[in-house]
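Run log, item B.
One chain of 151 residues. Sequence copied directly from the ordering sheet:
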Amino acid sequence: MRRIVAGCVGIGLLFGALESAGAAWGKKKKQAEKPAPASPQPAAVAQPQAQPAGATVIHTFEDEAKMGEFTRLWERRQAIILRMRVLQSYWSDDKALLAQLDTALNEQYQLDTAKHYILDPEKRTLVEQEAPPGAQPVQMQPNVPAQGPEP
């Protein structure tokens, strides 16, 4: 659960930054649509954010619409990563619970969960049975990389 909270906080911060940037874009657009005031007023000039040393500009957006399109794509990507992390957490929790259940079945009933069994209620017995042709054991690993994509 700690991983989910940490992931949510990190993604929440990113969403917050993108949301504030989106709000700023919307304000600029609305201000551009308003007619200029009759008397000149000192306008607050938006200063470009200072780039960290060694930072490289990889793309320049043509206009606010293109930047908004990028923001929507990035938000969708982040939402998918968050959903995958939540699912991965559920998978890990359920896998640990399944291991506990398998241990209990083995200790109490000498049951190997990789084998096939039939419960005979009339005789009150558990009978090991040969696996049907083509039967596959239950897969314990998801078909995705263990760590998943990083944001």
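Observations after the first pass:
- Residues 64-109 form the longest helix (46 residues).
- Helices lie at 2-33, 64-109.
Flagged for discussion on Thursday.
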